[in-house]
Amino acid sequence: MAESESGQDKTEDPTEKRKKDAREKGEIARSKELNTVTVTLAGAGALLAFGGGLAQTLMELMRTNFTLSREVLIDERSMGIFLMASGKIALLATQPVLLVLLIAAIIGPVSLGGFLFSSSSLAPKFSRMNPLSGIKRMFSVNALSELLKALAKFFMILIVALAVLSADRDDLLAIANEPLEQAIIHSVQVVGWSALWMAAGLLIIAAVDVPIQLWQAHKKLLMTKQEVRDEYKDSEGKPEVKQRIRQLQREASQRRMMAAIPEADVIITNPTHYAVALKYDPEKGSAPLLLAKGADFIALKIREIASEHKIQVLESPALARSIYYSTELEEEIPAGLYLAVAQVLAYVYQIRQYRAGKGKPPEPLKDLPIPPDLRRDS
């Protein structure tokens, strides 16, 4: 079981942040055996596919360069011209094979861990120049596993090579009796199939190495419980900082709420424990909006601000509690309270008319209709 420097067991799976940081540093699972198998198989396949044409092109190139005329031999400029022409022909002939090898060299590493370019992995690490660290790596578990893999590859290739040579013995002996051009093409085919079978033998090594590399990469990223807690604090913020932020947010919200009270049409109270401030805009045609609400000390402040701005204050304990618990700030009241609030607003309108000398004093409000599901007794 892995242990950290502090002695705690690394038993927790890595977090997404830990994985992201490791990937940015280039610390992901890679398998050299998978890369080797991919390139070797691709090279053998390319040799089988393009080997015949490549052999013919190279034979023609050799024939041309070994059958030179007397005029060419005595011309000092001919050597450079023939060299450039021969290089161009050889490059074009080997281009398909080289292109297949290039693609395989890209696909091999990308197939495990995906594409990654990390500048941090290119940075020099002076710790690797320490002789003691080098000796420690030479006798580490990782070095032992690399040695065992190398021995396994050697014996695997040896066994497959002996089997292939034994199976191709007749073909190899027949090459000696074939014409030169046919023998060269036949040799390329034998070499291609031999390489393909030996590369296929390495698939066993790669099939074992890939899960090991994935397991080692995962093991390296394991975390202790303390590391998980510390990372959570760093990403989410320390509890005291979060508490302070929430406090500042509440204070800012209360300041906005108190500043909106002068715009209210009516304040409904409990009368002492709760207070809610409502505003209704008939031009918008929407339901009444809750501008402010509070209990105890905040309710007292709401009533004080209402008194300063001469806003009508009505006592309706049941309605005040229902609005307080069912409606959030700057939201419309529930549909179940439309009728009760409409009666309150109508009452406030009648009071305004009466004070302006345009009507009779309104009758006192009767019991307001509040649905059972919205009623709060305390």
TrEMBL record:
Signal peptide residues are: none
Q: How does it sit in the membrane?
A: Multi-pass membrane protein
Q: Which GO terms describe its biological process?
A: bacterial-type flagellum assembly; protein secretion
- From the record, give the transmembrane residue ranges: 34-55, 97-118, 139-165, 195-215
What are the entry keywords? Answer: Bacterial flagellum biogenesis, Bacterial flagellum protein export, Cell membrane, Cell projection, Cilium, Flagellum, Membrane, Protein transport, Transmembrane, Transmembrane helix, Transport
Ranges for the region named Disordered are 1-27, 359-378
Compartment(s) where it occurs, according to its Swiss-Prot or TrEMBL record: Cell membrane
Q: Which domain of life is it from?
A: Bacteria
Q: Name one GO cellular component term.
A: plasma membrane
InterPro entries recorded for this chain? Answer: FlhB, T3SS_substrate_exporter, T3SS_substrate_exporter_C
Instruction: List, alphabetically, the PANTHER family matched.
Output: FLAGELLAR BIOSYNTHETIC PROTEIN FLHB (PTHR30531)
Q: What is the purpose of this protein? A: Required for formation of the rod structure in the basal body of the flagellar apparatus. Together with FliI and FliH, may constitute the export apparatus of flagellin.
The similarity annotation says: Belongs to the type III secretion exporter family.
Protein name as catalogued: Flagellar biosynthetic protein FlhB
Q: What is the lineage of its organism?
A: Bacteria, Pseudomonadati, Pseudomonadota, Gammaproteobacteria, Pseudomonadales
Gene designation per UniProt: flhB
